[in-house]
Amino acid sequence: MRYRLEYFALIVVRAAVRLLPWAIVRGAGTLLGLTFYGLDGAHRRIAVGNLERAFPARTRRECRTIAQSVFAHFGRVLLELLKFSALTREGMLALVEFEGDERARQAYLQRRGVIFLTGHFGFWELNGIVHALRIAPIGVLARSLDNPYLNQALEGLRRSTGNTVIYRRGALRRIMRELQANRGVALLIDQHVIGPEAISVDFFERPAATTSSLAMLALRTGAPVIPVFAIPIAGGRYRMIYEPPVPPPENDSLDAIRGFTQRCTDVLEMYVRRYPELWLWMHRRWRDKDSGDGLPEMFPSASGDGDLAGENGEDAVET
Fold this sequence. Notes:
Number of helices: 11
Order of helices and strands: HHHHHEHEHEHEHEEEHEEH
Oligomer: single chain
Low-confidence stretches: 299-307, 309-319
Helix content: 40-55%
Mean pLDDT: 90
Largest sheet: 7 strands, mixed
Distance between the termini: 27 Å
Structural class: alpha/beta
Number of domains: 1
């Protein structure tokens, strides 16, 4: 019953935002996010604590202000995604500008597939949608939501412009096939990972357990790895930025894998430092004695086993 009620609520909200002007949708998203900031004390404390440790020169008030902006941003992400998904393909592209997308096209010419690296930053879901329209459809690595009705709705949105969704059972084999067919795959690397593929790199000058799966895929396939970020810009538009490829690992030694993973993480950190209000600070990215273990997770649990396992059997690289 709960799953059906959640799905019904989504249908109602989706119908409403599709009829409303963009300004009202963004305002409602901001209000939604700030409401959660006020009600969700556990994740508010995680966000503020993470910000204080990442930016020691900032005051607690400044960190709380950024945390409020983070919650407001993710409220907007939800409603803007629902609004954006109702547009025609021409309408979507009219709201988006691309920077560096020639790097992606050049990468495809190598005929080894392309790995697009990003994180829970900015409007990453919108990037996947419009990437398929401007460049080529991609495979999106994901985990299924507990609620099958919501999961079906999210999968439909991700596939609406031609992308495929790769769930974690058999994910490694699917990813390899996609790359061997010279298709692109989108992976996120900003979640805490445990298991044999976890490797420790510095993120905001603190050790963070990060997936090594990205490095192993790049090494095994030779696929270029291109960081991509989606940021909001003036006029209610979005900019999709494609950074230069990250130099691949030279071999499968621990130092080479760690060095490559660190370079990928450094690119993400550069953007998070530049736009701290756009990253998911309420996630427990760092796990140490001061990280707040025991507090609830930001994401719903996933079920089933897979090839790319992270914390509690979750994907090591996921959306």
